[in-house]
Each structure stands twice: as C-alpha cells, then as structure tokens.
Amino acid sequence: MTTWVRRRTGLALLTGALALAACATPPKPAANAAAPPAAAPKPIRAGLDPATRPDPFPSTYKPAPAGPVLFVNATILTAAGPRIDGGSLLIRDGRIAAVGKDIAHPADAKVIDAGGRWLTPGIVDPHAHIGAGSSPTAANGDGSNESGPNPGGVWIEHSVWTQDPMFERARQAGVTTVQILPGSSNLFNGRTVTLKNVPATAPQGMKFPGAPYGLKMACGENPTGGGAGKPGTRAGGMMGYRNTFIAAQAYAQSWADWRKRGAGDPPRRDLMLETVAGALNGDIKVHIHCYRADEMVQMIDLSHEFGFRIAAFHHALEAFKIAPLLAREKIAVVTWAGDWSGYKMEAYDSIMENAAFVEKAGGVATMHSDNVMLMQHLNQEAARAMTAGREAGLGTTPEQAIAWVTLNPAKVIGVADRVGSLEVGKMADVVLWDGDPFSVYSLPDLVFIDGALIYDRAAPGRAPQSDFELGNARRPVSPARPAPRGLGAPR
Amino acid sequence: MIRCLVLAAALATAATSAAAAETVAIVNARVLSMGPVGDLPSGAVLVRDGKIVGIGERLAIPREARVIDAKGQILTPGLTATVSPIGLNDTIGSGYGGRGSNNPRLSAGFDVSYDVNPTSPQIPEARIEGVTRAIITPNPQSRAPNTPARLFGGQAAVIQLGEGGDLTVKPRVAVYLDAGEQGASAAGGSRGALLTLLKQAFADTRAYARNPASLDPARLDEMSLSRADLDALVPVVQRREPLLVEVNRASDIRNVLALARDEKVRVILSGAAEAWMLAPEIAAAKIPVVIDAEENQAFQFESLNATYENAAILHDAGVLVAFKPSVARIVFLIRTPRFIAGRAARYGLSPYEALAAITINPARIFGLADTFGSIEAGKDADLVLWSGDPLETTSVARMVMIRGVEQPLTARNRALRDRYIGTVK
Prior knowledge:
The structure holds 2 protein chains of 2 kinds. Chain A is α/β, with parallel strands linked by helices. Chain A has a domain of 331 residues: Metal-dependent hydrolases (TIM Barrel), CATH 3.20.20.140. Helices cover 21% and strands 18% of the residues of chain A. In chain A, the strands form 3 sheets. In chain A, strands 1, 2, 3, 4, 5, 15, 16 and 17 form an 8-stranded mixed sheet that branches. A 6-stranded mixed sheet of chain A has the order 8-10-11-12-13-14, sandwiched between helices. A 3-stranded mixed sheet of chain A has the order 6-7-9. Chain A is globular, with a radius of gyration of 23 Å. The two termini of chain A are 41 Å apart. The N and C termini of chain B lie far apart (45 Å). Chain B is of the alpha/beta class. Chain B is built from 13 helices and 16 strands. In chain B, the strands form 2 sheets. In chain B, strands 1, 2, 3, 4, 5, 14, 15 and 16 form an 8-stranded mixed sheet that branches. Chain B has an 8-stranded mixed sheet with strand order 6-7-8-9-10-11-12-13. Chains A and B meet through helix 1 and helix 8 of A and helix 10, helix 11 and helix 13 of B.
C-alpha cells in the first residue's frame, strides 16, 4: 500500500551489534539423532526451537468440492504456449485434466460453451497489500502494512484482515492468488504470505498450502529516510544490509553448532535473523523493493557477497537499463505499465516498455498491483505494457503478456509448479472473460479456484460478501450487462 | 548578447506563429466530433490559424493546405485531464501531487496557475497520450506542521499542453474546497464546524464586496482569511466563479447542495463517491460532477457506497459528468484519462458519453466550451488521431494537434526508451 509514501521514521535497523548468538533455519529433527548426549538433554520450552514447530501458523485451506467441468469453444491463452482457438479445457478434482483442441467429452462433466469467449489462468498478483493495508484503512487498526521501527521479524499474515472487501473486488477481477507483502519503510520489512483468494474467517483459511515464504527488503527512498534511526543515505542502507546478513550468518552458525553439540541451552531465537537466515539458505525467497538500476546492481553484488538469490526486484522501474543483466542473474522484474513516472524522485526514469524490455532480454517480467484500484485491472495493466512493447518494435505478444499476470508472478512467488498456467495437473484456477482479456471493456464472467466456481457475474447476489459490507454498504449490484461496442464501431 | 537573445526570441515566436498559421486538412477520418455534427464515418476537418474552420463529409480543401490522410482512423477532440496536478511539479512526490498553500493566511486566494511549469516532463508525457488540456487544481490539504488549517484550497486554472510558451489559458476558474472528512476535520473537527465557518465566510465576503472599507481586520484574523482570500471569494458569492467541492459521503453532498441553495453559490462536485445516491437532487440543482471513477470501495468510511456504477447513474439522471484521477492513487492515470473513461464505459456509461466526459464535458463544466472540447468550427484546433478506439488499452495516439500546431510525439519517457532499446533489440 502506497509504498512510495515514507510513513514513519524508525530506529536503525540492525547495526550489527545485535545480541545474537544464535541461529536460524528450521533444522531437520533427524540431525539430532546422530550422537546422543551422555546426559538427558534439558527440555526446551515450547516456541524456543523453531524446528519443533516449523510451520506454526499452518494453512487450513481446503478447496471447495466441485464436479468436473468441460469448457468448449473457448479462445484459450494458457500462458504456457500459443493461443488455442476453438479449444476445450477439462477440470476434474480441482485440477486441469485436459486442455487442447480435441478433448473427449466425459459424460459426468458439466459443459460450459464459451461461445468464443476467452479462458486464461487465474490472475496472480505478486505484490499487494490488501488485508494488511485495508479498505477502509480505519477498519483494520491503522490500516497500514508498515510495522516500524524494526520490523524484520514481522510475518505480514498476522495483519491480514480477511474481511477486507478488496479480496472480493480482486476476485471479481480474476485475481485468484495473491502475495501480500509488508513494508517498504525499512531495509528488512518481514515475511510475505501467499494466499488463495477465497473467503475465509482467518488468513489460515486462505494460505496457499506449501507456498514458500518471502522476505521483503527495500532500497532507496522509503527505507533510507532522514529521520532519527534511519540509515540516512543509501550507503548507510547498504551497511545495514551487510551487518544484518553478517549477523544472520552468525545466527545460523550458532544454531548449527548447538544442534551438532546436542547439549546445553539453545541460542536465543531472533525472528528477524531467523527470516534472514532462511533467505540465505534459500528456503525463503528474497523480494526487493528497488527502483533504480544503480541500486539493483548494488543489491546484486550484495547477493553475491553473501551467497543468496534474489527472486525479484519489485517496482524496478529502471529494469530497462539493465535488462540483460537481470536475465543473466535470473532475477524477475515485478513492475507496472509505467505510464506514471515521476511520482517520486527515484521513479523519475520510468518507461512504458519496461516489461517488454525484460521479456525481450529473456528475463521474467510481471505486473503487480501494489494498490487496491490497480489490483482490479491487472489485465489492463499488462495490456498497456504489451501495447507499448508492440509499438516500440519489441514484438510483444498477447501470449507473453498473459504470462506477465499469471505464470511469471507464480514463478516469482514460487508456486509455478501448481498455478499460473493452464497445463494438465495444475490447480484449476481459471477465468472465463467475456471478451479479449486485454480489452478495457472485458470482465470475468466466471472465476474458478481449484475447480470450484467462486464468482459468477451473472449471479452477483451469490458472490461472497465480506462481513464488513453486509448490512452496511448500499452499493448497487452491477447488472451482468454485455460489453459495450467500442468507439468507432457503427452506432 | 542581448541582441542575440532578442533575435532568438523573435525566431521562436516566428516559428510558433508560422506553425499556428498553417492550414491543415485532415481527411478520410472517422470523426467523433463531440459537437453538433456528431459522428462522421468519413469526414474531413480543416484547420487554419490555430482554429477549426471547417468540418464535414464533403469539404473543399484549399490548395495551400497540408493534407493529413487519416486512412480511416478515429479523430477526436483533444482530451482534458480534470482536477489534475499535471505540470505543477517535476516529480509529484508523495500523496496528492499538487501544489497548495501551507500559509495559514492564504487559502481561497492561492492561485495555482503561477505554479505551472511548462518544462515539466509530465506535460509531453500526457500530450503523447492525447491530453491537450487540463483543469489543474491546488492541493487543498497542504499544511505546514502545527499551523492552523485553512477552509479553502485555492483557485483552479485551465491550461493547454502545447509545446512551448505559456500554458495557462484561464486562471481562477473555480475555488477549490474540501468538504469531506479531511476538510471537516481541518475546519475544526467535523461538518458542524466546516459548514458554519463557510456560511460565516460567505457573509463576510458579501459585506466586503458591498463595502471593502468596512472590513474589520480582527474578523479576518478570526476566520484565518486574508484580503486576497476575500477578493477570491467575491466572484463566488456573485456567482461568477464556481466552488469546486471535494466531497464523498452522501450526507456531506446533501449539505453542499443546501449550502449552494442557501448561499446562492454555484457548485461543482468533485470525487463524489456517493453522488449516485442523490442523483435526482444533483440533476435538479444542475450541479455537475467530476467523478473519481476509479473508486469502487471505501478508501475511507465516507466512501462506503462507492461504485463503478456512479457515472452511469448520474448521467442517466441528467447530470453532466467528467472524470478526475483517483484520490486513492493520484499518480496513476493522470496522463491517461482515457482509461478511466474506458472503465466507466464498461459499467453502463456508453463509450460515447465516456469520451464526452474527457472532452466536451469538462470544457462545459469550467465554462470554456466555446474554445475547446469538441470539433466545431471556431474552436481551437485540439485534435487527436488514434490507432483504434481511443478508450482501448491497445490503442495509441498517432497525431496530436494543439491549437492548430501538430505536436512532436516525443517525451522524456520515449527518449529513455530509445536510448536503451539497443541493449535488447
């Protein structure tokens, strides 16, 4: 939410003098089996060894039961291959069971004749703040996603208010998977969480089973700040990153040493260093809010110094200046269409072709929302970036652009083996659009998550409504009107 | 040295006027005039000396005219960005990207037209998206820390986005006022404070207008108004200039309608998330609305009933509507009002009416429909040729003309693109 706003000043993030000692990664319990200590080990109190409960806030998400569905006569953008005209797609047991031109017609499948309408994977938003930074802001405490002053140990899932009406708005716009991020007011902002966009009473009911955690870091104007305790300069920020990674290495080592020893008191847990150490060993994906090319290059060198992988630069407006480098480093670019440069100094150099440059260089480009309004139009965001790429002669295609809001963000989050494309075996997160998904006039007619129909535009009264709006808002229900004929068509 | 400068200036002027003096015929265009001639499936528009001098299906093209063959592409009037911060800053900064008074003794009198920077990169970046005019407004919430709040935000202006020269077309077209949650809280806690102070300010303005010498400086102090503020409010109480009122909640809108009636002032609503709930009343009062058409959720409680249906419901009730960039993401779409319009067209407003809301309607709302907003003989030649439906995400502007001068389709973002494109192509 409003990541360009510098919200608070805070205390310095880690000066390196942390009282650490200890360790970090969720260790494998089996490792303890080796040399048993002579004396019986002192029992460790609950919560003090992360290995005893490595997933303390587990997902309780269960797909809604649903029968098999066969779409026929659809225009299909799979995000993993060329467009299929007059195609069919079979959903069974919540998975995509078949996709292509000629699919056998199972007797038990409910048939939906798309009549030429478009099928795409569910939209995946790799960078949102809804639930944590909610609408209205006042309805969820301070409504912010910032937990200053030193929030590296934050898990943003603990802020997610599932009654935020924006989950429902996003669902109606075809968004089926979303990564919620904390920050960006600090160098280390805490853990991300990835959610299936389904109604739930608590975020556990939405958590994407098995999705990896992310660590949100930030460069540039937001974390640098000028206030007391802030790094003050970009150089100060870099010192903060390095000191923290040094501390996290030592922390991880102290836990490894303790496990090897198998005796004595364990190191004292530190939630931030635990997360950073998880990023160092690759269990947690590193997402860095970073605008300028020079800063991205600095962060790449930082990753080499400490041996961690950067999953993606987020916002990354200047990725176009270093697109081949980002492709070589296998760092994804999470960005916008880029038609609103200059909203802050570090966004001064912004071009609409940013994603198209990354694509052309062989990298991984994605759109993201960051914002409650934009989250409802990610398809249009991709369309505008695609148009810019096409106009610049980069040969950007709809097949590429659909991946910017589906398969590629799934890769960034680390769930591309399960969602993001219409391929056999994947979770059946599917959107049926009433027209070309890149048109300003198109809307989802049907949205499926794990094969269950979660939104039907023709039956808006049956769409889930958040408790917050129930009996509160008097918004009119939009009729399921057909798309208008555009300007220039005969009137 | 001075001589050289004078010469350079003279040359620049000559170049500009030569271009403006050009006679141009755009032929074979699908013309969406937004004016009395309606749509022409294959029409021509003739431009001379910066003005439109002819439009029709069969138009005599003078021999001296430079002919642009539209090849059947859509020609529209230039687009207008309404309630916009375009051109006021080099970078927009955080939150609302405008300029405002943070001097507690200057509110209604603040004149944003002096802040227009013709060299801001935002100007050409909006121009290449077909934006030729903007109604620019001050930030009503500018406030230095620990200073008293001000009632009024200051005065809006109309600018044109042509290359070179003075952009201000008309300063002081409306006095901006935030009458929503923020404005009320700034005025002293709530609506009860805001509306009371407003009535008092109008009474004082009337007394001042009748007899400036009667002004008691102590009253000004009490009201946190300056003499410049009163001077700015005189045309408001005399109905020569409207109040542009930022307001969202239906009950707040009702208060503003009552204020307009009781104080006999002209009002334009802005933002207006819940205006649809009062559509018949707003239409009956002939009050236009500049809609935040992006808002369909409660950014704050005052917008609890925000809906994408707002524009269609208001239009169907007979309200004149335009679009502003979203308060929730002011920096988005300030250069591309056409996508705001396209979205409204998905929710019940016809695409034609959506185009009107970013062309002729803002010109009418701000009292300049005699000079721009439609393709009509006698108006300034602000024209855009599109590769497709101008409201579509996949269309781009192919030709932009402002006051008769074809504009370069260059901008800082395109220069950056061209500098780096060799690295991937």
